[in-house]
Amino acid sequence: MRVLLVDDEVELVSAMAERLGFRGVDADWADNGESALEMADKTEYAVAVLDMKMPRLSGLDLMDRLADKHPDMKFIFLSGHGSESDFKAGCAAGCNYLIKPIQLEELVALINRVTK
């Protein structure tokens, strides 16, 4: 199982990928939506972990574009902005999300849950 992490906070996303690797999860990362789209065209990812607020292409917009090309891909959102209730209201039913700062064990558990 490969995971694609997308967040405009480079230090955060690169550290997350490294730490997931220590836990046996193969993770690639991108710091913007356009790069993530290119990566997903070249590599099959089971899960995309997307930051909600990114410049140019939001997490929700990126999910729409990835889902069009990769219908089996699962999505988890990370949000560090706004309230949890606002995020839930703006997110489609069945959406999986974590509020920053995240606990890596929670992310691993959620990745395992969405891929079962």
Automatic annotation (TrEMBL):
Keywords on record: DNA-binding, Kinase, Phosphoprotein, Transferase, Two-component regulatory system
GO cellular component, one term: cytosol
Alphabetized GO MF terms: kinase activity; phosphorelay response regulator activity; transcription cis-regulatory region binding
Positions of post-translational 4-aspartylphosphate modification: D51
Coiled-coil regions, chain positions: none
Gene3D superfamilies from the UniProt entry: 3.40.50.2300
GO biological process: regulation of DNA-templated transcription
Cross-referenced Pfam families: Response_reg
Domain Response regulatory, chain residue ranges per copy: 2-115
Protein name: Histidine kinase
